Amino acid sequence: MESLTEKRIAGNETNAIDFLRKVIYKLFQPFRFLAATYRKIRFYFYTKSWLTHILGHVHINTISHQTSIGENATLYPNVIFELNQHSILRVGERFTLSYGAVISCQHSITIGNYVMIGEYTSIRDTSHGYSDTKVPYCRQPDIPSAITIGNNVWIGRGSIILPGSVIEDGVIVAANSVVKGRLESNSLYGGAPARLIKRITS
Hints:
Strand 21 (187-190) and strand 22 (195-199) form a beta hairpin. By secondary structure, the protein is an alpha/beta fold. It has one domain (37-199): UDP N-Acetylglucosamine Acyltransferase, domain 1 (3 Solenoid), CATH 2.160.10.10. It has one helix spanning 4-47, and strands spanning 53-54, 58-60, 67-69, 74-75, 79-82, 88-91, 96-97, 102-104, 108-111, 116-117, 122-124, 126-128, 142-144, 147-149, 154-155, 160-161, 166-167, 172-173, 178-179, 182-183, 187-190, 195-199. The model has no long low-confidence stretch (mean pLDDT 91). Helices cover 22% and strands 31% of the residues.
């Protein structure tokens, strides 16, 4: 059994380590603030949208002239925006984009208010053509088709939203679902492809 002296020594060491951790944390606070400010300025430079909640690195591939994101949006670390100078990305208020999610907007994506998108979700409004079997798929032209996501939508982790999809208001998409087509309002969908599971009532 430990003696009383040994317990006191161990307790003092723990207190000293905790104190040192707090001191180091405080010392790094100004650098964290500068990094957060840099992320906001950089995002504004690329999109002309000023966001107050950018919680980590956000990858944006180019300057976009037709991107707007509403107030109180939150971007988690390592999200990816693939845009071009002519793409139209419109996002409403209280938008949440979680860890590692991808929004690839080469044509047009519209997202409403109060939308939550789970980590590692992919939303893409283009896909490669495949009509000419003599040409490798990677060299065939992209086929764009606009995506529309309504208000109060929750898209679960790891889902894929394919070109041309329309997700109406109040829809929940279960994790790891593949969405193609129209999902009707106030409903829960899931699966690959996503199918109606149940209606959501008050």
